[in-house]
Design brief:
two-stranded parallel ribbon
Length: 113
């Protein structure tokens, strides 16, 4: 895939229930602004070679791996988002993460706190 100019990766592989393995090491996501639901409902996906890839600040990652059992808990704390640190100050452990991932705070940006 030539992804150099791709800005919207939304639902790119969503619903590919028989997709088991994918090499994303060559993905250039430097122009990405939305990667929400990129792998949603990829229920057989258990190998993403090259993950994690670089994700630009402010990129929407909401539900990126929704209903992917192998990737149910993905540490995305390395990825900068549009949410600043003050947004995390009063978030409860079981509240939704302010970054928009769709995960509980304790399983996302609250993992290392």
């Amino acid at each position: 895939f030539d992804t150099r100019r791709v800005e919207d990766f939304t639902c790119m592989f969503a619903g590919c229930s028989s997709l088991r393995s994918l090499d994303v090491s060559g993905f250039d996501t430097s122009s990405a602004s939305d990667m929400s639901e990129m792998f949603a409902d990829c229920t057989s996906l258990d190998n993403l070679k090259g993950w994690p890839f670089s994700i630009p600040e402010g990129t929407d990652l909401a539900l990126m791996f929704e209903d992917c059992p192998f990737f149910e808990v993905v540490d995305r704390s390395y990825a900068d988002t549009a949410v600043d640190a003050d947004s995390y100050a009063n978030v409860g452990r079981n509240d939704p993460c302010p970054c928009g991932s769709g995960k509980k705070f304790k399983l996302c940006h609250g993992r290392n706190r």
